[in-house]
Amino acid sequence: MAKTMDQYFDDLRGTRVWRSIFRSGTGSSTLKRALAIQQNVFLHLFSTKVRARMLSFSATWYLGTLTLGTFLLLVATGIPLMLYYHPSAPQAYADTKDLQFVVSSGLFLRNLHRWSAHAMVFLVFAHMFKVFYRGAYRTPREFNWVIGVVLLLITLLLSYTGYLLPWDQLAYWAITVGSNIASAVPMIGDKIHFLLLGGNAVNANALLRFYVLHCMILPLAAMFFVAIHFWRIRKDGGLYAHSSEPAVLRANAAKSPTSRTEREKWGTPADAKEGQ
Amino acid sequence: MAEETKDEIKKTEDVNRRQFFMRLGLGSLSIAAAGTAAFSYQFLEPNVLFEPSPVVNAGKPDRYPLDSVTLDVNTGIYIIHSQEGYFSLSAVCTHLGCLTVWKPELGIIACPCHGSKFDQSGKKIEGPAPRPLPWKRIWLNDDGDLLVDRSTDVPPLGRDSFVRV
User: Fold this and answer.
1) Smallest Cα–Cα separation from A59: which of A276, A238, A206?
2) Is A89 near chain B, with CB under 8 Å?
3) Bond from prior residue into A140 cis (ω within 30 degrees of 0)
4) Could you read off the pLDDT of B16-65 as tens digits, one per residue?
5) Cβ A173–B98 below 8 Å, yes or no?
6) Which of A133, A136, B110, B114 is least surrounded, with the fewest CB atoms within 10 Å of its CB?
7) A201 touches chain B (CB under 8 A)
8) How does the average pLDDT of chain A come out, rounded?
9) Under an 8 A CB cutoff, do B45 and A195 touch?
């Protein structure tokens, strides 16, 4: 009998090379599947096992995952754009036009980068609203909310620094206005303005500083905090699914007297009173 | 006196070797961190700026007819020839730094960004701008050209804030 696709894949997983990279080996069992998550450098940030309802669309609308998706898209389109862009005052605008009109697929990459940036800001806010209105920021997830606020700021700063790079009139005046807002900080406002721009006005130094912030410092900071954000999901009891929260399960068990096992498992409010 | 000395000796004895080295290590690390912070701050602040000179040559006064307001977009200043004489205003809006424009049909200076409006002497008429447009030092050089120092503010309507030819 001919082998199925799954069997070929299982054979592959048994080969010496595969086993040297992924240690869990052939066959499928709960243990093997758990090990596949736990032994992977990227996936081990997440819970080894997740309830199916936590992964349902209604629990999160996948807003966080989609935000990560746009971020990865931005990294994937941003790096090729860097190959044709010089962050210098005489060339930046010409390079932007070249990307638009001369470089093969440049228009596609640039537009994808721009639309992904808009989508990321939108998704970050949507994710935040979803978390807020679901109450998913509450104990024990307060710290992850704080990390989320940091990530919101990084997202906005990434957008802001990227705004200057085309070096056109819109970019110039947007950054002039934006950096003047920074001057409104009491006492050290003018100092922040000067350090941010590397001068008194938006010029070559500012362009280079914003480029370094946009392509290096802020993406690294984002990755660092994203890693903490994901790891905290596991540490704080998994993704927030309202129906899986202990308090909700207790309340549901109390409401449906037929579900004896649930009641035994979680107790009822009446039990809790007797216990006191 | 003697007792105090005794106490001090006892105090030094309380620090054992491990604690001593711990403090020494943390102390040197803190000094190194403070030094790094200071150096980083100095590094981030440019010592030389390749920015245009604040002093601008605005040309001969007869370029500016009486009762005219002339904007130079490259230097961001107005040269105004009024009945009292020539004076110069910054064209940079005091709100968030946009370049304002002179509206001859309305006789006002207006900012396109957030709608601040100023009169011909820089006084705010309306809008979010927190301060009037500052007056800049203006004088005639030996060649008879008007020079404006953009880095020096002078009192509005001040006697020396005008150039009279």
Assistant:
1) A238
2) no
3) yes
4) 999 999 999 999 999 999 999 999 999 999 999 989 999 999 999 999 99
5) yes
6) A133
7) yes
8) 89
9) yes
* Chain position carrying tokens 């056109």: A168
Interface test with A, best of B49, B116, B150 (most A CBs within 10 A): B49
One domain, residues A224 and A99: yes
Phi, psi of B152 (to 5 degrees): -120, 120
CATH of the domain at A92: 1.20.810.10
Q: Do B113 and A177 count as a contact with CB atoms less than 8 A apart?
A: yes
Examine the pLDDT at A274 and tell me if it is beyond 50. Answer: no
Considering the domain architecture, whether residues A101 and A137 belong to the same structural domain is answered as yes
What is the count of structural domains for chain A? 2
ipTM score of complex: 0.81
Tokens of A26: 């052939």
pLDDT higher than threshold 60 for residue A140? yes
For residue B13, what pLDDT band results from cuts at 50, 70 and 90? low
> What pLDDT does residue A139 have?
84
Same domain, A144 and A179: yes
Token pair 């669309």 is found at A57
User: What are A163's strand-pairing partners?
Assistant: none
Which amino acid belongs to residue A20? S
Name which of A8, A31, A27, A54 is nearest A239 in CA terms.
Answer: A54
Report yes or no on A120 lying in a domain.
yes
Q: Are residues A229 and A263 in the same domain?
A: no
Distance from CA of B116 to the nearest CA of A (A): 14
CATH architecture, domain defined by B55-161: 3-layer Sandwich (2.102)
Give the range of the structural domain holding residue A95, as residue numbers without chain letter: 60-235
Residue A159 and residue A132 share a domain: yes
Whether the CB-CB separation of B70 and B138 falls below 8 Å is answered with no
Domain shared by A93 and A188, yes or no: yes
Task: Please check whether residue A88 is in contact with residue A204, taking contact to mean a CB–CB distance below 8 angstroms.
Answer: yes
Residue contact B96–A198, C-beta within 8 A: no
A254 & A186 share domain: no
CA dist B100 and B79 (Å) reads 13
In a domain, residue A164? The reply is: yes
CA-based nearest residue in chain A for residue B99: A173
In a domain, A3, yes or no: no
Q: Which of B142, B129, B138, B137 is nearest to B154 (CA)?
A: B137
- pLDDT value at residue A36: 85
Closest CA relative to residue A130, chosen from A229, A233, A65, A60: A60
The letter for the amino acid at A163 is Y
